[in-house]
Design brief:
Layout lengths: L1 H5 L1 E7 L2 E2 L1 E4 L2 E6 L3 H15 L10 E5 H11 L4 E5 L8 E3 L24
Parallel strand pairs: 4-6
Antiparallel strand pairs: 1-2, 1-5, 3-4, 6-7
Length: 119
């Protein structure tokens, strides 16, 4: 968790906003730890999108992980987390919108006794 807060995260743009995906009632911001990880994602998207997608230009914003978690996620207005390096089967990580990851005000488990933490 501390490493994500310190690292720079590349988040591609999609249709004028940050690239997100919806899964399980959570909006996931797709972020990447470097351009190589983003390139692997772009290659996977090219397979899905078909011809022409391989030459697509990928613009992205760069956020410190702490800013992404503490400012961007709360501003989304819906339960949101961060999915890091989603095209890397061995290196992908999910940071869900729970206490200890995002601010308590937007954590989906904030009203659970113990903040969703097992005791």
């Amino acid at each position: 968790m501390g490493e994500l807060r310190r690292v720079l995260v590349l988040v591609p743009f999609d249709r004028g906003g940050l690239w997100t995906a919806e899964f399980g009632g959570i909006r996931w911001v797709c972020g990447f730890t470097d351009e190589a990880a983003l390139a692997r994602f772009a290659a996977e998207r090219a397979v899905v999108e078909g011809a022409g997608a391989a030459s697509r230009s990928w613009e992205y914003a760069v956020f410190r992980g702490a800013r992404l978690l503490d400012e961007v996620i709360p501003a989304m207005g819906v339960p949101a987390g961060v999915a890091v390096n989603v095209a890397d089967p061995d290196g992908s990580m999910l940071f869900p919108p729970v206490v200890g990851i995002v601010p308590d005000a937007v954590a989906v488990d904030a009203d659970v006794p113990g903040g969703g933490q097992q005791r």
